[in-house]
Amino acid sequence: xxxxxxxxxxxxxxxxxxxxxxxxxxxxxxxxxxxxxxxxxxxxxxxxxxxxxxxxxxxxxxxxxxxxxxxxxxxxxxxxxxxxxxxxxxxxxxxxxxxxxxxxxxxxxxxxxxxxxxxxxxxxxxxx
Length: 128
Prior knowledge:
alpha/beta, Leucine Aminopeptidase, subunit E, domain 1, four-stranded parallel β-sheet, 3 helices, 4 strands
C-alpha cells in the first residue's frame, strides 16, 4: 500500500533514501508554482531508480503567506500521488518537517483534500 506522511523530524538525520533533489531554499512565486511538479517528479524518479521503497523528502521552506505554502503543498501531494499510482516505488513517502508551522500545513492540506476517512487523516495529537 502506498502512503504519504508528514511528520516532525530533521531531513539531515533521515535513515534511508533522501530525495535531495527536492531541497528548496525558497518557494516559487504563486504564478510559477508549476515548476515544482517536474522537480518532484525528478526526485521521485531518482528514488525509484535507487530502488527505494521508502523515500524521505525535505519540507518546503516556510513562507510569509500560508496561502503560498498551501498551494505548494497541494501541488506536491498531487504529484506524489500521481507518481505512486503509476510506479512501483517509492511506496512510502515521508516528509520530515523541522518547522511546526510547515508541518501543520502539510497535515491540514492532507486532511482537507486527500484523507479518505478519519483513519486516513494525519494527526500528531493536536486534533480530535
